[in-house]
Amino acid sequence: MVGTQENGLTFVSGYKKLKPDIVTIDMFIPHLKGLDCLELLKEIDPKVDSIMVKSVFTENEALECIREGAKRYILKPFNEETIKEALENLKLLN
To answer: Going residue by residue through the chain (94 aa), what tens digit of pLDDT does each one get?
Structure first.
């Protein structure tokens, strides 16, 4: 199942409705920070496979994403190869 959410306020309800295998979360999603969305998702599903997305990651931000439970992070703009690599890495982690 594929879906998108307009903002952080609808993110969790969309996850509950769609029950996706993998979620991508923009670090600057409107109305709620990406890491806050991840925290809420982890409460619902501690094993959620998540990929954090941002235009620029600092080393500290990347480490924080991993500490908070994100499985991967990718930089925008991304291309098909970047997505494939992130998904392959998720398979290896599971």
So the answer is: 578 888 888 988 999 999 898 999 999 888 889 999 999 999 999 989 999 999 998 899 999 999 999 999 999 999 999 999 998 888 766 6
C-alpha 28/C-alpha 19 separation (Å) is: 22
Q: For domain 8-93, which architecture applies?
A: 3-Layer(aba) Sandwich (3.40)
